[in-house]
# Entry
Amino acid sequence: MSNSLHGIAGVDEAGRGPMIGPMVVCGILMESRDLPSLKRMGAKDSKVLTPRRRAELSQAINNVAAKVELEIISAYDIDSYRKKMTLNEIEVRAFIAILKKLKPEEAYLDAADVKADRFGSTIGDRSGLTKLGCKIVSEHKADAKYPVVSAASIIAKHKRDSIIESLHHEYGDFGSGYPSDPKTVEFVKGYIIENKKLPIIVRISWESVTKLEDKYRMKQSRLDRF
# Structure
């Protein structure tokens, strides 16, 4: 085992699926002796926690973690990258960037790939960490199983929540940013109908966005004929 590797890391993302706002990837590094503190404080899958509880836990996790790293990928950057690569590849690169900074002895990842093992081995190989002796565990729903991944998911979700809140002040309340949110859909639809260019915070490469554009731009062009 290389002396350059130290501690136990968890890595997860928030905001993979929305059509508005960034994707946030977080990695935390813990000393093994401090891991039980994550369970004691109630670190669990961020999706089952309220925004207020995520904010409280995010602060507590930052206080006990040896290191915290974030990669924030804007909607604009996601659209740009997707011209050349898949969303999975974007996520792989973000995980690699974080793990190369953390340099853990063990890393627990919430897998983005349908094949969880492939996700982990790709990251381990391309980061160079596997060669150094890092043990990588890559599983689906790791955020519900490993407190160190839960903690990363909490910080990632809290950071994204904070960014979305600041975007609401700038653009108005567009809801959560997810395609399942009627408020988000109405926001995007409103821009399209008014024939305004979609703002930079909208992921224009998203299928849910292009479907709205196809539907309402066509509808507007028909109205403009009369």
Confidence is low (pLDDT under 50) at residues 221-226. The beta strands are 8-14, 23-30, 67-73, 106-110, 135-139. The chain has two domains: 8-167, 171-220.
